Protein backbone atom coordinates (compact mmCIF):
# COMPACT_ATOMS: atom_id res chain seq x y z
CA UNK A 1 0.00 0.00 0.00
CA UNK A 2 1.28 3.49 -0.82
CA UNK A 3 2.49 5.44 2.23
CA UNK A 4 0.28 8.35 3.28
CA UNK A 5 2.21 11.33 1.99
CA UNK A 6 -0.27 14.07 2.78
CA UNK A 7 2.09 16.86 1.73
CA UNK A 8 4.84 16.92 -0.87
CA UNK A 9 7.12 19.34 -2.69
CA UNK A 10 6.86 19.15 -6.47
CA UNK A 11 9.78 18.02 -8.62
CA UNK A 12 11.19 21.16 -10.26
CA UNK A 13 13.97 21.25 -12.83
CA UNK A 14 17.08 23.17 -11.68
CA UNK A 15 15.54 23.63 -8.24
CA UNK A 16 14.88 20.41 -6.33
CA UNK A 17 18.43 19.07 -6.41
CA UNK A 18 20.12 17.32 -3.47
CA UNK A 19 21.22 20.60 -1.86
CA UNK A 20 17.71 22.05 -1.87
CA UNK A 21 16.38 18.80 -0.44
CA UNK A 22 18.95 18.80 2.39
CA UNK A 23 17.97 22.40 3.18
CA UNK A 24 14.26 21.48 3.22
CA UNK A 25 14.89 18.61 5.62
CA UNK A 26 16.04 21.18 8.18
CA UNK A 27 12.50 22.60 7.99
CA UNK A 28 10.30 19.51 7.57
CA UNK A 29 11.09 15.84 8.13
CA UNK A 30 7.83 14.29 6.95
CA UNK A 31 7.00 16.11 3.71
CA UNK A 32 7.70 13.93 0.67
CA UNK A 33 10.44 15.38 -1.53
CA UNK A 34 11.13 14.62 -5.19
CA UNK A 35 14.20 14.68 -7.35
CA UNK A 36 14.31 16.79 -10.45
CA UNK A 37 13.09 14.79 -13.43
CA UNK A 38 15.83 12.39 -14.58
CA UNK A 39 15.55 10.90 -18.06
CA UNK A 40 16.06 7.20 -18.59
CA UNK A 41 18.81 8.01 -21.10
CA UNK A 42 20.80 9.96 -18.50
CA UNK A 43 20.65 6.98 -16.13
CA UNK A 44 21.27 4.18 -18.61
CA UNK A 45 23.68 5.86 -20.99
CA UNK A 46 25.21 8.65 -18.94
CA UNK A 47 28.80 8.43 -17.75
CA UNK A 48 28.14 9.42 -14.14
CA UNK A 49 24.99 7.85 -12.71
CA UNK A 50 25.70 9.18 -9.22
CA UNK A 51 25.45 12.72 -10.55
CA UNK A 52 21.74 12.17 -11.12
CA UNK A 53 20.84 9.68 -8.42
CA UNK A 54 23.08 10.28 -5.40
CA UNK A 55 21.41 11.59 -2.27
CA UNK A 56 21.97 11.65 1.48
CA UNK A 57 20.04 9.63 4.03
CA UNK A 58 18.74 12.87 5.57
CA UNK A 59 16.60 13.48 2.48
CA UNK A 60 14.14 10.63 3.18
CA UNK A 61 11.32 10.21 2.31
CA UNK A 62 12.39 10.84 -1.28
CA UNK A 63 10.86 9.95 -4.64
CA UNK A 64 12.74 9.58 -7.91
CA UNK A 65 10.96 11.15 -10.87
CA UNK A 66 11.71 9.55 -14.23
CA UNK A 67 11.15 10.83 -17.73
CA UNK A 68 10.88 8.37 -20.61
CA UNK A 69 8.56 6.48 -22.92
CA UNK A 70 10.18 3.07 -23.34
CA UNK A 71 8.79 0.40 -20.98
CA UNK A 72 12.01 -1.60 -20.80
CA UNK A 73 14.11 1.47 -20.05
CA UNK A 74 11.70 2.69 -17.41
CA UNK A 75 11.54 -0.74 -15.81
CA UNK A 76 15.32 -0.90 -15.62
CA UNK A 77 15.57 2.61 -14.19
CA UNK A 78 12.87 1.86 -11.62
CA UNK A 79 14.94 -1.11 -10.41
CA UNK A 80 18.06 1.05 -10.30
CA UNK A 81 16.12 3.61 -8.26
CA UNK A 82 15.10 0.88 -5.83
CA UNK A 83 18.71 -0.24 -5.53
CA UNK A 84 19.77 3.32 -4.73
CA UNK A 85 17.23 3.36 -1.91
CA UNK A 86 14.51 5.74 -3.07
CA UNK A 87 11.09 5.66 -1.39
CA UNK A 88 9.04 5.57 -4.61
CA UNK A 89 9.35 5.94 -8.38
CA UNK A 90 7.34 8.58 -10.18
CA UNK A 91 6.66 8.88 -13.90
CA UNK A 92 6.53 12.37 -15.41
CA UNK A 93 3.46 12.79 -17.61
CA UNK A 94 3.14 16.53 -17.04
CA UNK A 95 6.17 18.39 -18.37
CA UNK A 96 5.29 20.38 -21.53
CA UNK A 97 8.76 21.56 -22.60
CA UNK A 98 9.86 21.22 -26.22
CA UNK A 99 12.83 19.07 -25.20
CA UNK A 100 10.57 16.60 -23.43
CA UNK A 101 8.07 16.58 -26.31
CA UNK A 102 10.88 15.86 -28.77
CA UNK A 103 11.61 12.78 -26.69
CA UNK A 104 7.92 11.81 -26.85
CA UNK A 105 7.43 11.80 -23.10
CA UNK A 106 6.13 14.18 -20.44
CA UNK A 107 2.72 15.79 -20.98
CA UNK A 108 2.37 14.58 -24.57
CA UNK A 109 1.95 11.05 -23.19
CA UNK A 110 -1.50 12.07 -21.99
CA UNK A 111 -2.61 11.59 -25.58
CA UNK A 112 -1.75 7.89 -25.23
CA UNK A 113 -3.32 6.53 -22.03
CA UNK A 114 -2.88 2.90 -23.09
CA UNK A 115 0.83 3.49 -23.61
CA UNK A 116 1.17 5.10 -20.18
CA UNK A 117 -0.60 2.06 -18.74
CA UNK A 118 2.03 -0.19 -20.35
CA UNK A 119 4.80 1.98 -18.89
CA UNK A 120 3.29 1.76 -15.41
CA UNK A 121 2.86 -1.99 -15.73
CA UNK A 122 6.48 -2.44 -16.82
CA UNK A 123 7.78 -0.37 -13.92
CA UNK A 124 5.65 -2.24 -11.39
CA UNK A 125 6.97 -5.54 -12.68
CA UNK A 126 10.56 -4.53 -11.89
CA UNK A 127 10.31 -3.13 -8.36
CA UNK A 128 8.42 -3.47 -5.11
CA UNK A 129 8.43 0.29 -4.66
CA UNK A 130 5.25 2.32 -5.19
CA UNK A 131 4.87 3.52 -8.78
CA UNK A 132 3.18 6.89 -9.07
CA UNK A 133 2.31 9.17 -11.98
CA UNK A 134 2.32 12.98 -12.03
CA UNK A 135 0.16 14.29 -14.84
CA UNK A 136 -2.02 17.18 -16.00
CA UNK A 137 -5.80 17.25 -16.22
CA UNK A 138 -5.26 17.11 -19.97
CA UNK A 139 -3.50 18.58 -22.99
CA UNK A 140 -4.90 20.73 -25.76
CA UNK A 141 -7.11 18.50 -27.88
CA UNK A 142 -7.53 16.03 -25.00
CA UNK A 143 -8.82 18.32 -22.30
CA UNK A 144 -12.31 17.20 -21.35
CA UNK A 145 -13.18 15.60 -18.03
CA UNK A 146 -14.09 12.45 -19.97
CA UNK A 147 -10.58 12.35 -21.45
CA UNK A 148 -9.10 12.72 -17.97
CA UNK A 149 -11.26 9.97 -16.47
CA UNK A 150 -10.34 7.64 -19.33
CA UNK A 151 -6.64 8.34 -18.76
CA UNK A 152 -6.89 7.66 -15.03
CA UNK A 153 -8.93 4.50 -15.59
CA UNK A 154 -6.19 3.18 -17.87
CA UNK A 155 -3.32 3.71 -15.43
CA UNK A 156 -5.41 2.54 -12.48
CA UNK A 157 -5.97 -0.73 -14.32
CA UNK A 158 -2.19 -1.00 -14.72
CA UNK A 159 -1.79 -0.81 -10.94
CA UNK A 160 -0.61 2.75 -10.37
CA UNK A 161 -0.24 3.34 -6.63
CA UNK A 162 -0.92 7.07 -6.51
CA UNK A 163 -1.58 9.87 -8.96
CA UNK A 164 -0.57 13.50 -8.61
CA UNK A 165 -2.70 15.76 -10.77
CA UNK A 166 -1.64 19.26 -11.78
CA UNK A 167 -5.03 20.93 -12.11
CA UNK A 168 -4.24 22.68 -15.41
CA UNK A 169 -4.14 21.39 -18.95
CA UNK A 170 -0.78 21.59 -20.72
CA UNK A 171 -0.77 23.55 -23.96
CA UNK A 172 1.84 21.82 -26.06
CA UNK A 173 2.34 24.51 -28.66
CA UNK A 174 2.76 28.23 -28.14
CA UNK A 175 3.38 28.40 -24.39
CA UNK A 176 6.66 28.10 -22.51
CA UNK A 177 6.92 25.72 -19.53
CA UNK A 178 6.68 28.74 -17.21
CA UNK A 179 3.54 29.97 -18.96
CA UNK A 180 2.06 26.47 -18.77
CA UNK A 181 2.30 26.77 -14.97
CA UNK A 182 0.21 29.94 -14.88
CA UNK A 183 -1.77 30.62 -18.09
CA UNK A 184 -4.14 27.63 -18.37
CA UNK A 185 -6.85 28.09 -15.72
CA UNK A 186 -6.94 25.89 -12.65
CA UNK A 187 -9.72 23.29 -12.68
CA UNK A 188 -9.76 21.79 -9.21
CA UNK A 189 -13.21 20.34 -9.78
CA UNK A 190 -11.76 18.00 -12.39
CA UNK A 191 -9.36 16.61 -9.77
CA UNK A 192 -12.19 16.20 -7.28
CA UNK A 193 -14.18 14.37 -9.95
CA UNK A 194 -11.32 11.89 -10.38
CA UNK A 195 -11.31 11.16 -6.66
CA UNK A 196 -15.10 10.77 -6.65
CA UNK A 197 -14.94 8.39 -9.63
CA UNK A 198 -12.08 6.33 -8.20
CA UNK A 199 -12.43 6.62 -4.40
CA UNK A 200 -10.01 3.76 -3.72
CA UNK A 201 -7.20 5.50 -5.65
CA UNK A 202 -4.85 7.84 -3.77
CA UNK A 203 -5.11 11.27 -5.41
CA UNK A 204 -2.84 14.26 -4.74
CA UNK A 205 -3.72 17.70 -6.05
CA UNK A 206 -1.13 20.16 -7.41
CA UNK A 207 -1.28 23.67 -8.82
CA UNK A 208 -1.70 27.12 -7.28
CA UNK A 209 -1.66 26.03 -3.63
CA UNK A 210 0.59 28.35 -1.64
CA UNK A 211 0.03 27.76 2.07
CA UNK A 212 -0.48 25.07 4.68
CA UNK A 213 -3.88 26.58 5.44
CA UNK A 214 -4.99 26.14 1.84
CA UNK A 215 -3.50 22.63 1.84
CA UNK A 216 -5.54 21.63 4.85
CA UNK A 217 -8.76 22.66 3.13
CA UNK A 218 -8.08 20.17 0.32
CA UNK A 219 -8.05 17.09 2.52
CA UNK A 220 -11.83 16.87 2.56
CA UNK A 221 -11.74 16.21 -1.19
CA UNK A 222 -8.39 14.51 -1.95
CA UNK A 223 -5.71 12.49 -0.18
CA UNK A 224 -2.69 14.75 -0.58
CA UNK A 225 -1.41 18.14 -1.64
CA UNK A 226 1.71 18.94 -3.64
CA UNK A 227 3.16 22.45 -3.46
CA UNK A 228 5.49 23.68 -6.20
CA UNK A 229 6.82 27.21 -6.66
CA UNK A 230 5.68 28.43 -3.25
CA UNK A 231 7.84 25.72 -1.63
CA UNK A 232 10.88 27.21 -3.35
CA UNK A 233 10.03 30.89 -3.00
CA UNK A 234 8.94 30.58 0.64
CA UNK A 235 10.41 27.34 2.05
CA UNK A 236 9.87 28.28 5.69
CA UNK A 237 6.10 27.98 5.17
CA UNK A 238 6.71 24.25 5.84
CA UNK A 239 8.01 24.94 9.36
CA UNK A 240 4.80 23.64 11.00
CA UNK A 241 3.93 20.98 8.42
CA UNK A 242 4.98 17.96 10.48
CA UNK A 243 2.97 18.92 13.54
CA UNK A 244 -0.09 19.98 11.51
CA UNK A 245 -0.37 17.06 9.11
CA UNK A 246 1.38 14.16 10.85
CA UNK A 247 0.83 14.97 14.53
CA UNK A 248 4.55 14.69 15.14
CA UNK A 249 6.94 17.38 16.39
CA UNK A 250 8.31 19.64 13.66
CA UNK A 251 12.09 20.23 13.66
CA UNK A 252 11.40 23.62 15.24
CA UNK A 253 14.57 25.27 13.99
CA UNK A 254 14.60 29.03 13.69
CA UNK A 255 15.88 30.56 10.47
CA UNK A 256 19.13 31.42 12.24
CA UNK A 257 19.54 27.83 13.49
CA UNK A 258 18.96 26.59 9.94
CA UNK A 259 21.80 28.81 8.72
CA UNK A 260 24.07 27.44 11.44
CA UNK A 261 23.31 23.88 10.27
CA UNK A 262 23.96 24.88 6.68
CA UNK A 263 27.40 26.12 7.64
CA UNK A 264 28.36 22.56 8.55
CA UNK A 265 26.84 21.31 5.30
CA UNK A 266 28.81 23.86 3.28
CA UNK A 267 31.99 22.69 4.98
CA UNK A 268 31.22 19.07 4.08
CA UNK A 269 30.38 19.92 0.48
CA UNK A 270 33.71 21.71 0.07
CA UNK A 271 35.29 18.25 0.23
CA UNK A 272 33.31 17.40 -2.92
CA UNK A 273 34.36 20.71 -4.51
CA UNK A 274 30.78 22.01 -4.39
CA UNK A 275 30.79 25.82 -4.46
CA UNK A 276 28.69 27.70 -1.85
CA UNK A 277 26.39 29.32 -4.41
CA UNK A 278 25.24 25.86 -5.57
CA UNK A 279 23.77 25.40 -2.11
CA UNK A 280 22.93 28.89 -0.91
CA UNK A 281 20.97 29.87 -4.04
CA UNK A 282 18.24 27.58 -2.76
CA UNK A 283 17.93 29.56 0.47
CA UNK A 284 17.23 33.01 -1.01
CA UNK A 285 13.58 32.69 0.03
CA UNK A 286 14.30 31.68 3.63
CA UNK A 287 13.23 35.08 4.95
CA UNK A 288 10.32 35.50 2.53
CA UNK A 289 7.80 37.92 4.01
CA UNK A 290 10.18 38.77 6.85
CA UNK A 291 11.47 42.33 7.46
CA UNK A 292 15.06 41.09 7.04
CA UNK A 293 14.47 39.47 3.65
CA UNK A 294 16.07 42.20 1.51
CA UNK A 295 19.23 42.35 3.65
CA UNK A 296 19.54 38.59 3.48
CA UNK A 297 19.02 38.27 -0.27
CA UNK A 298 21.27 41.19 -1.08
CA UNK A 299 24.16 39.88 0.99
CA UNK A 300 23.97 36.39 -0.50
CA UNK A 301 23.52 37.64 -4.06
CA UNK A 302 26.59 39.87 -3.76
CA UNK A 303 28.85 37.39 -1.98
CA UNK A 304 28.02 33.73 -2.59
CA UNK A 305 29.51 33.74 -6.12
CA UNK A 306 32.88 35.20 -5.11
CA UNK A 307 35.86 32.97 -5.94
CA UNK A 308 37.00 32.83 -2.31
CA UNK A 309 33.54 32.20 -0.83
CA UNK A 310 33.32 29.27 1.60
CA UNK A 311 31.34 28.14 4.64
CA UNK A 312 32.38 31.24 6.60
CA UNK A 313 29.95 33.24 4.48
CA UNK A 314 27.30 32.20 7.03
CA UNK A 315 29.29 33.86 9.84
CA UNK A 316 29.69 36.97 7.70
CA UNK A 317 25.96 37.06 7.05
CA UNK A 318 25.12 36.77 10.74
CA UNK A 319 27.71 39.42 11.59
CA UNK A 320 26.28 41.78 9.00
CA UNK A 321 22.81 41.27 10.40
CA UNK A 322 23.97 42.10 13.92
CA UNK A 323 25.85 45.15 12.67
CA UNK A 324 22.69 46.55 11.12
CA UNK A 325 20.41 45.22 13.90
CA UNK A 326 18.60 43.42 11.12
CA UNK A 327 15.33 41.62 11.72
CA UNK A 328 17.08 38.54 10.29
CA UNK A 329 17.99 37.64 13.87
UniProtKB/TrEMBL annotation:
Report residues binding FMN. 11-13, 65, 134, 166, 206-208, 228-229
Required co-factor(s) are: FMN
What is the enzyme's main class?
Answer: oxidoreductase
Check the record and name the SUPFAM superfamilies matching this protein.
FMN-linked oxidoreductases (SSF51395)
- Residues of the active site are 95
Q: Which InterPro entries match?
A: Aldolase_TIM, DUS-like_FMN-bd, DUS_fam, DusA, tRNA_hU_synthase_CS
The protein's UniProt keywords, in alphabetical order, are: Flavoprotein, FMN, NADP, Nucleotide-binding, Oxidoreductase, RNA-binding, tRNA processing, tRNA-binding
Positions marked as site (Interacts with tRNA): 92, 181, 297
Molecular function as annotated in GO: flavin adenine dinucleotide binding; FMN binding; tRNA binding; tRNA-dihydrouridine20 synthase activity; tRNA-dihydrouridine20a synthase activity
What catalytic activity is recorded? 5,6-dihydrouridine(20a) in tRNA + NADP(+) = uridine(20a) in tRNA + NADPH + H(+); 5,6-dihydrouridine(20) in tRNA + NAD(+) = uridine(20) in tRNA + NADH + H(+); 5,6-dihydrouridine(20) in tRNA + NADP(+) = uridine(20) in tRNA + NADPH + H(+); 5,6-dihydrouridine(20a) in tRNA + NAD(+) = uridine(20a) in tRNA + NADH + H(+)
Q: Show the Pfam families listed in the entry.
A: Dus
Its Enzyme Commission number?
1.3.1.91
Q: List each copy of the DUS-like FMN-binding domain by range.
A: 9-309
Q: Does the keyword Oxidoreductase apply?
A: yes
Please describe what this protein does. Catalyzes the synthesis of 5,6-dihydrouridine (D), a modified base found in the D-loop of most tRNAs, via the reduction of the C5-C6 double bond in target uridines. Specifically modifies U20 and U20a in tRNAs.
Q: Which family would the database say this protein is a member of?
A: Belongs to the Dus family. DusA subfamily. Belongs to the dus family.
What is the protein's given name? Answer: tRNA-dihydrouridine(20/20a) synthase
Q: What species is this protein from?
A: Leptospira ilyithenensis
**Classification of source organism:** Bacteria, Pseudomonadati, Spirochaetota, Spirochaetia, Leptospirales
